[in-house]
Amino acid sequence: MSDPVRFSHLRAYGRSAMHGLHARSGAEADTTTAMERGTAVHSIVFGTHPVIGYPGPVRRGKEYEAFAALHQDYEILTRDEYAKAQRMAEAVKECKLAEPYLKGAVEETLLFRWMGLDCRSTPDVRGADFVTELKTAPSADPAQFGWHALRMHYHAQMRMEQMGAVLGLESTILDCFIVCVEANEPHPVTVFRVDEKALEVGEKLLCLWAERLKVAEASQAWPPYVSCVVPLTVPEEEPELIFGDDNV
Q1: Distance between start and end Cα atoms, the chain
Q2: pTM to 2 decimals?
Q3: Which one of 75, 91, 129, 158 has the largest count of C-beta atoms within 10 Å of its C-beta?
């Protein structure tokens, strides 16, 4: 595969080689409402892409198709989601603490060579000595966002963006920031600086995923999570069972 490796590809290899192949093949992930809203917030804050709300009740049917045909270059949201994205973007723009970390080259793709791989990275913002990602999340509370960031591997993403600037541009990137706006009103904004330990752990993950990618592509084998029958057990001290929706 000749396309440069992106962070999303490496993260997919973190799940399994099968997931990595799927990501590297160019298959797009199913878009959720939260993902659409996040893309719209980025576009509004940075002015990179026009966004519009569809005035109808649902985004389907002949009326919507006609509307979409007239707005082919727009990111089209529902009316309510568009209004919400606007409020979130305005909260980001009004945050004085975040302002200096949102100034610089916006969504500039960086090409670089790392671990024998052609890679690419596109920071939301690249300043003189920092990179910044704008994130939307269910909570911008530092006590909660940290767990969300670890689950999403943002520390690995920021390390890859830092390396992209250093290796691709030979620049000195000292700091990595995440500007997070909460999805729920009143849309508080929190600015996080990713510390050195987190970036080191992120690089270890990147190295692990990159090695898995190289082995899979060299052997032309992309196994799933496991290739054998695995036991399903419960702890000796059986925990209290909590019954939920079987469809979740």
Answers
A1: 35
A2: 0.89
A3: 158
